[in-house]
Amino acid sequence: MKVTLHLIPGEEEENAQLCLHEDNKKMEELKEYLENDGTSNPILSVTEEGKAVYLSGKEILFVEADKNKRLIRTREGSFHSQHKLYELEHMLPASFARVSKSVILNTDQVKVYRPLANGLMAAELGDGQVVYISRKYLKELLLRLRQE
What we know:
Blueprint: H1 25-35, E1 43-48, E2 51-56, E3 60-66, E4 69-74, E5 77-81, H2 85-91, E6 96-100, E7 103-106, E8 110-115, E9 121-125, E10 130-133, H3 135-147
Antiparallel strand pairs: 1-2, 3-4, 3-7, 4-5, 6-7, 8-9, 9-10
């Protein structure tokens, strides 16, 4: 891949343009890296028992919406986020995918995908938790997984 750098005046906004033949996970990660000013793993501010806690994207297994709460699930436990699910979807790294109306899954944390009889799919995480993938989001997730 050819890379060209152009220096611009300080008053102009910095930007990057990628011209690609196809989009894949590596390019998504590169895009996120550039958008996050060189930090490939964004930090998310959450709360636990009223205290502020900071989590990296790698620590998060999945995010689920339950009534008016957004729960961030990790191996260490559950945390609360004030952000809406659609906001978290844009804040989290490319390894996260919407898998149902109320769940965003970290695909890097999935140990096994199992198809179920009713058209759903189950994603078993490394710690034994299971997340169900709805039919509505399954096709897009399978396309993403094939690109990896």
